[in-house]
Every structure is written in structure tokens, then in C-alpha cells.
Write a structure and sequence with these properties.
175 residues; alpha+beta; Alpha-Beta Plaits; 6-stranded mixed beta sheet; two-stranded antiparallel ribbon; 41% helix; EC 2.7.7.65
């Protein structure tokens, strides 16, 4: 329906990406994304309207991607995006651009205006990270913190750059 990678394909590609050493001056941005109040959209406007919102988000996410970036639909209203970036500022700019671009859209469905936002758990990796299960768990925690803290926001994982084998620390940084 969205034309995006499914969960299995996305996780395989992420696992491959995490196993490859990063080039000098290259880092990764990983976003774990959930459409806010999606169930209400389906309940108020019907599942075809919800499908249209999913398709609109997929198009927005693809528009924020470059050639080597990839985005997947993990299931329901959950998505993820991986982008190669040159700096933490670049990562923050892409994440904010995605969040703001989707929030600015209005979908007209059978005469009704539908607006939606996303909550995002985000990670900026500037060295190899080989523990995908921990990374996904931490991103999921950051995503749900974004929802608990008001939605339509980004919660960033804090980096532990003192350890080269593991970038993600247990603490979360507020965006």
C-alpha cells in the first residue's frame, strides 16, 4: 500500500548497514516514527482515510530521503527511516524537516480536512553499532517518550562516544 520496505526487509537492510564501518565524515540517522492518534483517524473517517494518511506519510518520508537512505513501514502506523548524514546538525535538520513537513499537510477526505503529526525516537550514530536489538529497543523507548511528552516531537537517544563498540547510552536527551 505504501510502497515502502516491510519490517523484515527494513530490519535486514538496517542490520547490513550497522555492520558496515562508516566512512570518514559519514554518520547515520535512524528514526523510529509513529503517526499520532492514528486510531482516531480510522474511527472518525474510516479505514480508507487512514490508508490515505499512511500513503501521505510514506510520500513525505520518501521526499526526505536521498539515494542511499531507506524507509520502511514496520506495521500499522509505525515507520522507520535510515539516512546517511554528515553531522549531528544534518541529522537534526532531516528529522525536523520530516516532522514539520508531515504536520503541515492537510488531507481532504470526503470533504473533511485531516491533519496528523508524528512522534519520533531518533538516534545519531557516528561509529559502528552492532547490537541491533538494543538499538531498536532504545529507539522504541524514545518514541514512546515522545508520545508521553506531548506528541509531534522528537526524542533523541544520547550518545556515549567514549565507547567505540556501543554508541547508544541508556539515557535519553530531550529535543
Amino acid at each position: 500500500m505504501t510502497g515502502l520496505l516491510n519490517r523484515r526487509a527494513f530490519e535486514q537492510r538496517l542490520d547490513t548497514q550497522l555492520a558496515v564501518p562508516l566512512r570518514q565524515g559519514s554518520s547515520l540517522l535512524i528514526l523510529w516514527i509513529d503517526i499520532d492518534f492514528f486510531k482516531l483517524i480510522n474511527d472518525r473517517h474510516g479505514h480508507p482515510a487512514g490508508d490515505a494518511v499512511l500513503q501521505a506519510f510514506a510520500a513525505t518520508a520518501r521526499s526526505c530521503c536521498r539515494a542511499n537512505d531507506f524507509v520502511g513501514r514496520l506495521g500499522g502506523e509505525e515507520f522507520a527511516l535510515v539516512a546517511q548524514v554528515s553531522s549531528a546538525d544534518d541529522a537534526q535538520e532531516i528529522a525536523n524537516r520530516l516532522r514539520e513537513a508531515f504536520a503541515a499537510q492537510t488531507l481532504i477526505w470526503e470533504g473533511a480536512a485531516i491533519r496528523a503529526t508524528v512522534s519520533i525516537g531518533a538516534c545519531y550514530l557516528n561509529c559502528v553499532h552492532q547490537d541491533m536489538a538494543t538499538l531498536i529497543r532504545d529507539l522504541d523507548t524514545a518514541l514512546y517518550d515522545a508520545k508521553r511528552n506531548g506528541r509531534n516531537r522528537i526524542e533523541w537517544l544520547e550518545q556515549d562516544v567514549s565507547r567505540r563498540d556501543r554508541v547508544i547510552g541508556p539515557r535519553l536527551a530531550r529535543a
